[in-house]
Amino acid sequence: MAQDTYIGAVDQGTTGTRFMVFDHSGKVVANAYQKHEQIYPEPGWVEHDPEEIWENTQDVIQEALGNADLSADQLEAIGITNQRETTLIWDRESGRPLNNAIVWQDRRTTDRVEKLQEEGKEGWIREKTGLEPDAYFSATKAEWLLDNTDQIKLQRMRPDDVRERAEQGELMFGTIDSWLIYKLTGNHITDVTNASRTMLFNIHEMDWDEELLEEFNVPEATLPEVRPSSDENHYGTTDADGFLGEEIPVAGALGDQQAALFGQTCFDEGDAKNTYGTGSFMLMNTGDEAVESEHGLLTTVGFQRSGEPVKYALEGAIFITGAAIEWLEDMTLIEDAAETENLARSVDSTDGVYFVPAFTGLGAPHWDQRARGTIIGMTRGTRREHVVRAALESIAFQTRDVAEAMESDSGIELTDLRVDGGAVKNNFLCQLQANIVGTDIVRPVVDETTALGSAYAAGLAVGYWETVDELRDNWQIDREFAPEDPQNVEQRYGRWKDAVERSLDWARDGGE
């Protein structure tokens, strides 16, 4: 391995696309970021333009390399990490999407999921996929796209023509990782972690499931090939005549939360991390066993390296955490996220205010698609500081809901929790989290662990790093937060549960 070579990582998230370049010690040497448009065609619908995401991906790669004065041939490999479940369908011949991508947050298929529940298919789906049937996952999104193409302006075909073309393999289904791998290499590939989030993939047989494909009417001919997250055979290389002018192996891909698990070096059974982004996602490595959840958690694929068995994980998906802080901004209660720490510290408590940010329903462990956001316990004396503090507490309380479920399912007691993502820069939140969960919160030096995880996966595949021990050595603690002065945390947690109860099953009978 030459001294001046690096690994690149495309981190394609919900709000924007980042490209980071890492050196052998896991240090960031280049970084560029661009936001993309959030499209809300109807209430509860969320879309992204895949072409815009691809344009931005090319831009941030070139910008990061340019800023750091690096040339593309110094990249030994590229890894990809992505917002999971976001779904698109594109034309095999032209490479053009038929429509916007339907984002993981989108609720348009709620009725379809409720029909599955009425038909008693929840257990059947959970058994195969490890997932709780929800509009969050890709299966109902793909079904909707194939059935509703007539509603999509870009499309001139009749819906039956779309179905026909899909059956013949002229259309391609994919999550964002597949889209980017396709645009970078020309190959139609996904990795095991992203496949495990589609609700079309059997995580025990590690293959697309015929019965599920039939249930959701998604033709097998549209599906990508499923490969390990870190693949010595590579997914392909960039085109020497393309925008980078070099053939660079694309050799690793992980859905964003699994990438963070990998980047936090949670390689052993019982290791756990929580990522605070738009939502929060807590994952625990359960080793070679797919642990079935009794408490509303998801069983998912953690990662797979070439020639090695799959590692499974338990996951608690909390839909809204960082987005609750964005909402405070939208409502002009704060000017920016950094302000929340001082505002929250300026009051001793929330003064009895609880904020349940169920803007898009509630995920684990409640799984209520019709829950909606609520702020409860306000009096005439309630000030914005109380609401801001309640928003931060909601992040910590939701994490405790998941942590308790995880300990019950796995039988493993959490000794510490590795944290990453934008919100962990907030020391008040980290301390609050330690107090409320009652465990040490450990913040690493490099908090962009999602990008780092996909870089590690790609780098291991091409031999840039030889062993995972080298990666463990790279991992460094920035700060640890031990539980202290919990301020009647048990009583407050009880009241939190009462507040959640009030938010459930709200969006009914036109109450959307």
Describe the structure.
With 512 residues, the protein is of the alpha+beta class. It has 16 helices and 23 strands. The strands form seven sheets. A seven-stranded mixed β-sheet has the order 17-18-16-15-21-22-23. A six-stranded mixed β-sheet has the order 3-2-1-5-14-13, sandwiched between helices. Strands 4-7 form a two-stranded antiparallel ribbon. The longest helix is centred in the C-terminal third of the chain and has 27 residues, at 384-410. The chain is globular. The mean pLDDT is 92.
> How far is it from the N-terminal to the C-terminal residue, by CA?
57 Å
Radius of gyration: 22 Å
Instruction: State the helix count.
Output: 16
In helices, the fraction of residues equals: 25-40%
Counting helices, strands and paired strands, the structural category is alpha+beta
Strand residue percentage: 15-25%
Number of DSSP E strands: 23
Q: Low-confidence spans: pLDDT under 50, at least 5 residues?
A: none
Helix and strand arrangement:
Elements: E1 6-12, E2 16-22, E3 28-35, E4 47-48, H1 50-67, E5 75-82, E6 87-91, E7 101-102, H2 110-118, H3 122-129, H4 138-147, H5 159-167, E8 171-175, H6 176-185, E9 189-191, H7 192-195, E10 201-202, E11 207-208, H8 210-215, E12 225-227, E13 236-237, E14 249-255, H9 256-263, E15 272-276, E16 280-287, E17 298-303, E18 311-318, H10 322-330, H11 339-345, E19 354-356, E20 374-376, H12 384-410, E21 416-420, H13 427-437, E22 440-444, H14 449-461, H15 468-474, E23 477-481, H16 489-503
Parallel strand pairs: 1-5, 5-14, 9-12, 15-21, 21-22
Antiparallel strand pairs: 1-2, 2-3, 4-7, 6-8, 10-11, 13-14, 15-16, 16-18, 17-18, 19-20, 22-23
